[in-house]
Amino acid sequence: MITLYNIIYALTEVEIPDNQMMITEAVIDSRKAIPGSVFIALPGERSDGHDFVKNAFENGAILALIQKDLGSGFRILDLRGINSGQEISIPQAPFCIRVDDSLKSLQDIARYWRQKLSARVIAITGSVGKSSTKELTTEVLSRKFHTYKNPGNYNNEIGLPLTILNLGQGYERLILEMGFYYPGEISFLCGIAKPDVGIVTNIGTVHAERAGSQEAIANGKAELVEALNPSPDGIAILNFDDPFVKAMASKTRASILFYGLDSGADVWADEIQGQGLKGIRFRIHYHDESMVLEVPMLGRHSVQTILRASAAGIAEGMTMHEVAEALMASNTQLRLVAVQTKSGALILDDTYNATPESTVAALDLLDELKGQKIAVLGDMLELGQYEQAGHEVVGRRAAEVVNHLIAVGPRGQTIAETAKLRGLPPTAVTWVADALQAAEVLKYNLKAGDVVLIKGSHSLRMDRISPILEEAA
Fold first, then answer.
1. Residue 259 in contact with residue 265, Cβ under 8 Å?
2. 291 by DSSP, 3-state: which?
């Protein structure tokens, strides 16, 4: 557990005597402050954390990291301009630590604390499948090691250092998801986290609007493997089936562990059978070992997630038997949720977000199921130059799978028109402007045996559809 001593030293290199004030947690939301926590006041577009320091103290925080004047009523320890030769007088808690930049100070403290931790760090990036890989890798490694992961979407320049600060000395493995929005971001995050193992899932078209091309996205993701230590300490786990990821082997000094569906990979799978809502069955191979597994994860595309987690376990010294036990007992699921309506229809709610790759994978799962198949597919955002082609790919696959298509949003028109060009009858295609209109179309038309897939970018709020349909008679 990090202490006040550690925080002061990380910011100033000044050693304060005889002060082991323990910090229970680091938070940026004053409502989440608990007794003994440190509150980092960050200025923001919508709200300013400095306005909530008092609330954080009322909830039990003993420290607040600030970069602005708060006025009277607060005890302040000003660390601006302090150097290693000066003495520091510690105020009575709760008090504020004044710095030039509270976000940079958060990152500096996390960078220092990471160097004090003995846990090995496994970092994950890629266009699709980061979160499910993080969850399943955590389950696999937890079978043998005391393991921690970054919660929710704590995968950026704020969330990642918060995760590291909240990690205690007793943990043996730390699983960190790393997001990518601009060149240099992953390199910066690696400078804080110092990963020992890097997993790259795939290179899709998501974020192309910002990054510009798949090549630019690949270069950004490759920053992870470039940051790894040389072999044997550093290990890069790379997708053998994705040419962009496979090529990253030339950009790292780390050991390479390939995974995929090709027997040329180190960890690979074949004999894959989708079993609908029961999960998947396949044979996994590593060197001369192989075994048949049944894992309760939905869709054939889940095999890639399983292979990544398996490779992570192997990289960390687990046996195939240990990995297999963890996989078969897994509670991890993709963000897709299956719910039954009052009418007896089955809803596959996969509305967290959408890319062409993940939407086609969801349609592949729909294809495995029995019943009248309906897909509600919405706009996919941030595709940049791939916007038209990405929606056309989804439209083509939808035409092969569904009995009825409901396309949502302006870009959804491309999905609808492509599906009709590919043979889906015009009477089986409906276009609506938003999610609530889609719910109205379906609300009174669902019957027992129907299977409805709902998927679209998060900003369309398509998560509102399933609750309405669940109540449909």
1. yes
2. strand
Alpha helices in 173-238 (DSSP H): 185-193, 208-211, 214-226
- Strand boundaries in 118-183, DSSP class E: 120-125, 147-149, 173-177
In terms of Cβ atoms closer than 10 Å to its own Cβ (0-12, 13-18, 19+), residue 348 is buried
Please answer whether residues 138 and 163 qualify as being in contact, where contact means their C-beta atoms are separated by less than 8 angstroms.
Answer: no
Percentage of residues in the chain with pLDDT exceeding 70?
96
Tokens for 435, please give them: 């999610």
Q: How many residues does the chain have?
A: 473
- Cα separation, 297 vs 295, whole angstroms: 6
The C-alpha atoms of residue 77 and residue 105 are separated, in whole angstroms, by 14
Question: What tokens does 151 get?
Answer: 């919660």
Give the Cα-Cα-Cα angle 186, 358, 136 (nearest 5 degrees): 65
Q: Quickly list DSSP for 296-308.
A: --SSTTHHHHHHH
56 contacts 26 by C-beta, under 8 angstroms? no
According to DSSP, the residues that pair with 375 across neighbouring strands are: 405, 453
Instruction: Give the tens place of pLDDT for each residue, 237-258.
Output: 999 999 999 999 999 999 999 9
Cα–Cα distance list, 136 to 141, 243, 279, 310 (Å): 9, 24, 14, 9
Q: What's the whole-model pTM score?
A: 0.81
Q: How far is CA 174 from CA 88, 132, 318, in A?
A: 33, 15, 16
**Per-residue pLDDT at 113 exceeds 60:** yes
- Kind of pairing, strands 372-378 and 289-295? unpaired
Tokens of 298: 């939905």
* Amino acid of residue 400: E
Amino acid at 279: G
Q: pLDDT by residue (tens digit) across 446-459?
A: 888 899 999 988 78
Which one, of 126, 123, 136, lies nearest residue 302 by Cα? Answer: 136
CB within 8 A of 468, min separation 6: which ones?
Answer: 436, 439, 443
